[in-house]
Amino acid sequence: MDITPRRVEMSGKVYGVAVIGLGKAGRARVRDLLQYTSHGDVQWCLKGFVSRRTLEIEGAKQLTEDEVFTREDVEAILICTENGLHERLVRKGLENGKHVLCEYPLALSLKVAKEFFEMAERKGVILHEENIGLLNDYKEQLEQSTPWKHCDITLKGSYNGWVEDHKTSGPPFVCNVSLIETACHLCGDVKAVGGTYSENLDSFHATAHLEAPDKRTVTISLRRFKESDGREKSIIFQLQDGTVLNLRPSKTPGAKPGLFMRDFYNFMEEVTSGKIDQEMKDRTLRAFQIAEDIHRIIMPKSNF
């Protein structure tokens, strides 16, 4: 995947941008938007941010939610809240004619995600789901290696007050739909063939067994703990010659601009071109379909 920021034609204007949600991702977005105000011939201006807390950030103004959705000088919004708020905020943004970048997951179901893309098309605005986990050269590394026969994608992390709440934040593979998008990106049009789910008072563990069109296999393992030492993610391919390929970023950690900003560059290219990235849209919707197929297997009695 080419992660080099792409140039776009002169837009002839400065786009007003606002960030909703000041967690880790939101703070990174605000920091970057203050530091970088153009890319190629595209310019933007951070109009402000929305947070439940009263905050002071040098160079940024705190706004109300209503201001963000009704001000004419705010043309694009970045939604960086917990999952349970995404659907309401995305819908409100699209209804008010705003371009919307939303941290994954875009919605909590395939049905609503489809509805949102259709609404964006009708309104003539851009809808973009973030997945910075794809802004790397993993696909190139894989293509240069010996053919693979099995892939293990693993994520271990902690509870944070909402990620463990499947009712409000989405079941495991919707809440972490980026893992499925990674499998689709690297392994092709995989499908769900099995999986497991278990939980106790202190953790839960969900696995998904996927199969590529050529019968090669993928296992996604997701573990969340009430108490954890941090977040760990790995993508390991077992190759046909018996060796193992452990994918790691080749880009130097901390390189500038960071992943969130490069994701924003891609969003702004869509905004200035007036076209939603079809590859991103197709991958997003396919991942939701796979997630729902998995949950029908591993959590058949749940009603999300």
Automatic annotation (TrEMBL):
SUPFAM superfamilies noted in UniProt: NAD(P)-binding Rossmann-fold domains
Classification via Gene3D superfamilies: Dihydrodipicolinate Reductase, domain 2, NAD(P)-binding Rossmann-like Domain
GO MF assignments: nucleotide binding
Gfo/Idh/MocA-like oxidoreductase N-terminal domain: residues covered: 17-129
Top-level taxonomic group: Eukaryota
Pfam families: GFO_IDH_MocA (PF01408)
Protein name: Biliverdin reductase A
UniProt lineage: Eukaryota, Metazoa, Spiralia, Lophotrochozoa, Mollusca
